[in-house]
Amino acid sequence: MLWDATIITVHDKQRPVQIYVKISIANNSTMSLLNQFLKKKIGFHLRFSSFIHIFLIIFCEIQDRILDVKYTDIDYVIFTDGARFTLDGGSPFDRETYRYTPLLAWIMTPNIIAFPQFGKILFSALDILTGWMLYRMLPSSVDRKLFSLIWLYNPLTLIISTRGSSESIICSLVILALYLFSKKQYLIAGLVYGFVIHFKIYPVIYAPSLYLVISNKKHWRNLLPTKSKLVFFISTAVGFLIPTLLSFYLYGQIYIDEAWLYHFYKLKSVLSSNSFSVCFCPTICVDTRQRFLLLVR
């Protein structure tokens, strides 16, 4: 038994009865097995996590066939459709609601050429790679295997990658950039970092921190540019501009409109379709023009 609960009733003359629940986590034998499992080498956990990913991909196929509620992420269907349009000589943006870098459609073409589960296997492999890079990147002064296991066995990362979400590409590239950055390989780290910003703009928020970390001096001079900073950020610009300009060259203004401007101009639709937080209810319920007029007034 992993846990047991004991209900303790406390009577107090001045206050109502208070009930506390005392939970005992696992017994000795269970904890012993858990400790033995955790003490195994990182290679074992990488293989075991890979097995879990494969199991979930198979489970995904079964659920998609027998249940109305699909396990596969709807974005995965969009990626695959974009790849199909690309192979047919068209544009991935011919697929309605495709609003990603066209590189993702190119990466997903084996879904059409080979087998439709290719993308999920790729995302899962990158998920495992991220766990391994965390183990290699963290210093020996911390329990780096523990942090790696938290990633490898995290239910969220397991489900997200096996459903077919491309977030594992972003995560693995960010960790790779940080790993190279920690080794002071600023040129390659910048190229990777710029490429991941092209893939999804969100990682740009790390730029100020990376700028300050390069010098690592607690002085106002830390704000001044150095050779290392220039190398990193110039290579970041190159890593971002090359795939971005290539995408614009191949697909024109529709790439800018769908992959970039859409996320600024269509804020209301993005929030209403992707956020269930009550904080966004006023944003969803009030028309965009009305919000603007309220701000002006």
From TrEMBL:
Keyword hit for Transmembrane: yes
Subcellular location: Endoplasmic reticulum membrane
Pathway: Glycolipid biosynthesis; glycosylphosphatidylinositol-anchor biosynthesis
Enzyme Commission code(s) on record: 2.4.1.-
Keywords: Endoplasmic reticulum, Glycosyltransferase, GPI-anchor biosynthesis, Membrane, Transferase, Transmembrane, Transmembrane helix
Residues that span the membrane, as ranges: 158-181, 188-210, 230-251
Molecular function GO terms recorded: alpha-1,4-mannosyltransferase activity; GPI mannosyltransferase activity
Major localisation: endoplasmic reticulum
Alphabetized InterPro entries for the sequence: PIG-M
One Gene Ontology term from the biological process aspect of the record: GPI anchor biosynthetic process
Enzyme class of the recorded protein, top EC level: transferase
Topology versus the membrane: Multi-pass membrane protein
The keyword ATP-binding is annotated on this UniProt entry: no
One Pfam family this sequence matches: Mannosyl_trans
GO CC annotations on file: endoplasmic reticulum membrane; glycosylphosphatidylinositol-mannosyltransferase I complex
Record's function text: Catalytic subunit of the glycosylphosphatidylinositol-mannosyltransferase I complex which catalyzes the transfer of the first mannose, via an alpha-1,4 bond from a dolichol-phosphate-mannose (Dol-P-Man) to the glucosaminyl acyl phosphatidylinositol (GlcN-(acyl)PI) intermediate to generate alpha-D-Man-(1->4)-alpha-D-GlcN-(1->6)-(1-radyl,2-acyl-sn-glycero-3-phospho)-2-acyl-inositol and participates in the sixth step of the glycosylphosphatidylinositol-anchor biosynthesis.
Assigned protein family: Belongs to the PIGM family.
Designated name of the protein: GPI alpha-1,4-mannosyltransferase I, catalytic subunit
UniProt lineage: Eukaryota, Metazoa, Ecdysozoa, Arthropoda, Chelicerata
